[in-house]
Specification:
The complex is a heterodimer of chains A (577) and B (114).
Chain A: H1 6-28, H2 36-43, H3 48-59, H4 62-75, H5 81-104, H6 109-117, H7 120-153, H8 157-173, H9 181-207, E1 225-228, E2 233-237, E3 241-245, E4 248-252, E5 255-259, E6 264-267, E7 275-276, H10 283-286, H11 297-311, H12 316-321, H13 328-359, H14 362-366, H15 372-381, H16 385-421, H17 427-447, H18 453-477, H19 483-506, H20 513-519, H21 522-539, H22 548-556, H23 567-576
Antiparallel strand pairs in A: 1-6, 2-5, 2-7, 3-4, 3-6
Chain B: H1 2-11, H2 14-22, H3 24-57, H4 59-62, E1 65-67, E2 70-71, H5 72-113
Antiparallel strand pairs in B: 1-2
Classes of the chains: A mainly alpha (577), B mainly alpha (114).
């Protein structure tokens, strides 16, 4: 192991401090919120601002923290769709699902499926998809933790993945973590600080700098730069450039070059940056949507928008968080604050990505664009103590992003596994379920190739949008839904989208329209799921549950009528009898 | 309070549900909600799709420089954040102004009948 630099040590210390601070803040509250009733209890004691901080804290994952800046750096304006879609998805959740679902008294999708359609089979299928969606979502989180550790310390990335999985599962198993809204809120503010501070400093440097984006030329290396290529990469060269390739000086003429993993490239100061194939080369193109006729742009973007807009409501950890509001009015206020919080964060991250094009152009060569946020401090402030401190802050933010989302996901997955698979409410079983919930994605993360984080997250949103979105929207807004229809729709949407995701993960899908739809299946799979659900429900009209009218009324009538039976109150009463 | 209401609704069985369901106030509440949620979502999605269409078929318009590095495409892109936030704020205003009073009327009707 190489001797660690000041930067590496301070970043490691910062990451350890975040984990400890989270555990301490979490354990102060004592109460372990694992079940419905704990969320209800929490809802009486938390104000909208703290609550909004918690929702945002859990929602902004490592993929958001690292991935969006990376995509902006590489793809420019086109990548704006990710942050816009993540925010809009939250709006869709608020408009269509949040309030009625709250009133239904169901706290997870499996609960909702059973309460609305009285079907154990549907419940089981939903449980499977909660686990699948949760695991797929955990995958880029673990890889993000791995990348963070590799970038700041130079350790191999599997060390980071294993360490982070162990830390998260341990915090969940030992309790504390999820318990308190304040942990999540603290992590939101930490993440926001960790992007706003470097973004502000970089903007100040940019303003006092003669450089500009507005050129019909590729970006330039600000100084002599060495790039270690970690994965095979194809580069496009538009203006001839001198490069020292593994110690041998060569001149690259315009064209494309394949560079094998493990190679070392050196460029002189002022050299034009070769850019990873498929990304805009010139700065002027990078600033304009779909410049240079990138293939499948329109189709892919439509599909992405649908996935992000409709997928958010199907994410297990997002849905359950929404119950920590005492009533509909507070829930609505919370929603507005959440959107403001998400918006500020995403704009800051976008700025970091854009400025990285000036300060960290070597990432365009190595393909490691996801490391943009982590490397900005050193690139702007140099390697002194100021750069090290800011670097530590950013590493801490990345770690907080990873911790909050992953622990939320593991609690959600473990919750459904322990009630529906292990079939008991025992704490010991919950702990076992948490270990299973963490082990499965860890195994997966060590074996599959890494996609760009935001791309990987996009795939998960597509699965969520093709399964839980039709179930929730039709279940809440259409009385004609039947159990058979719901099962058929969830299976068709789920198998199609998950199949596409699996194919995309193998990394061998080629080019053309089909490839675009495999990477971004939502445009086909979401309408397919809705259609199948509606048609099969109409064919099995007789299977509509007898209490549909009552359930619908309970979901759509205002809470204060007292029609929305608290499932907790019900359970408590039946236990008391 | 909720426990009290629950008991009363249970003792009267389905009648409370049926009463509410049939009441003009409830129909009013539902139509108010639908009148807002569905057109708003449609407008919102169309605004998104228009951006994508402009980007694909009117690239020269999107590339018009407004100020320094900033072009029309970038401005419209950032406006998407603003609109998302604006729609949520409008929804919250609407809910507070139109949905809550409608819900209140239903409550009065029920309690008046009980």
């Amino acid at each position: 192991m190489p001797v660690m630099s000041i930067e590496a040590i301070s970043a490691l210390v910062a990451m350890a401090l975040v984990a400890i601070a989270s555990a301490v803040i979490g354990s102060l509250g004592v109460r372990v919120a694992r079940s419905t009733s704990d969320f209800l209890v929490a809802s009486r004691t938390v104000g909208p601002t703290a609550n909004a901080g918690a929702i945002s804290g859990e929602y902004l994952s490592a993929a958001s923290f690292l991935g969006i800046a990376g995509l902006i750096l590489r793809d420019g304006v086109d990548a704006l769709w990710y942050p816009v879609g993540f925010t809009a998805g939250y709006l869709a959740l608020v408009l269509f699902v949040a309030a009625p679902l709250r009133r239904s008294g169901a706290y997870t999708v499996p609960d909702f499926a059973e309460a609305r359609l009285r079907s154990r089979t549907l419940r089981k299928i939903c449980t499977v998809f909660v686990a699948v969606i949760g695991w797929l979502y955990l995958l880029p989180q673990l890889q993000g933790a791995g990348l963070t550790l590799t970038t700041v310390t130079g350790l191999p990335s599997w060390v980071g993945m294993v360490a982070s999985a162990v830390v998260v599962v341990a915090t969940v198993v030992l309790g504390g973590m999820r318990s308190i809204t304040f942990v999540q809120a603290f992590q939101y503010w930490l993440k926001l600080t960790a992007v706003v501070v470097p973004a502000t400093i970089a903007v100040i440097f940019f303003v006092s700098d003669a450089r500009t984006f507005n050129r019909e030329a590729p970006p330039q290396f600000p100084e002599r730069t060495t790039v270690d290529v970690r994965t095979d990469v194809t580069l496009q060269v538009e203006e001839s450039v001198l490069v020292i390739y593994d110690g041998i000086p060569v001149s690259w003429e315009p064209g494309s070059y394949v560079v094998a993993a493990g190679s070392r490239l050196e460029f002189g100061g002022g050299a034009k940056v070769p850019v990873v194939a498929g990304a805009p080369v010139e700065d002027a193109d990078w600033l304009v949507p779909y410049a240079g006729d990138r293939e499948g742009g329109l189709l892919g973007t439509y599909s992405l928008i649908i996935a992000l807009f409709l997928g958010t409501m199907g994410l297990p950890h997002v849905l359950v968080r929404f119950y920590t509001n005492p009533d509909g009015r507070a829930a609505r206020r919370t929603a507005v604050i959440v959107l403001a919080m998400l918006g500020v964060f995403y704009v800051a991250v976008t700025l970091v990505g854009a400025l990285s094009r000036l300060y960290n152009p070597q990432l365009l060569v190595s393909g490691d664009t996801d490391a943009a946020v982590l490397l900005l401090p050193a690139a702007v402030l140099g390697s002194g103590w100021a750069g090290a401190l800011l670097g530590a802050l950013v590493a801490a933010g990345a770690w907080a992003a990873f911790l909050s989302t992953s622990s939320g996901l593991i609690v959600s997955i473990a919750g459904v596994l322990s009630t529906d698979v292990l079939r008991s409410g025992k704490v010991r079983d919950f702990r076992l379920a948490a270990v299973i919930a963490g082990a499965a994605p860890l195994a997966l993360s060590l074996t599959v190739t890494r996609l760009d984080f935001s791309e990987a997250v996009g795939l998960v949103f597509a699965v969520a949008a093709s399964t839980f979105c039709p179930l929730l929207v039709l279940g809440i807004w259409w009385r004609g839904l039947t159990d058979r229809g719901a099962i058929a729709g969830v299976l068709v949407g789920g198998l199609l989208s998950a199949g596409a995701v699996a194919l995309a993960l193998t990394g061998r899908v080629g080019d053309g329209t089909l490839a675009v739809l495999l990477y971004r299946p939502a445009l086909v799979t979401v309408p397919a799921a809705f259609l199948v659900m509606a048609v099969v429900s109409s064919l099995t009209r007789k299977r509509r549950p007898a209490d549909t009218e009552q359930v619908m009324l309970r979901m759509h009538a205002p809470e204060r009528l007292g029609l929305s039976r608290d499932r907790l109150a019900e359970r408590l009463r039946s236990a008391g009898r | 309070m909720s426990a009290l209401n629950e008991r009363s609704s249970e003792s009267t069985g389905g009648t409370v549900y049926e009463q509410v369901q049939a009441s003009p106030e409830f129909a009013d509440l539902r139509s108010r909600l639908r009148r807002f949620v569905f057109p708003m979502s449609a407008a919102f999605l169309i605004w998104y799709l228009v951006y994508v269409l402009l980007a694909s078929y009117a690239p020269s318009f999107m590339a018009i420089k407004v100020l320094g590095n900033i072009n029309v495409g970038l401005i419209i892109g950032l406006l998407q954040f603003v609109t998302t936030f604006a729609i949520t704020t409008i929804y919250v205003r609407y809910a507070n102004k139109h949905l809550d009073p409608a819900a209140e009327r239903i409550r009065e009707r029920i309690e008046g009948a009980a």
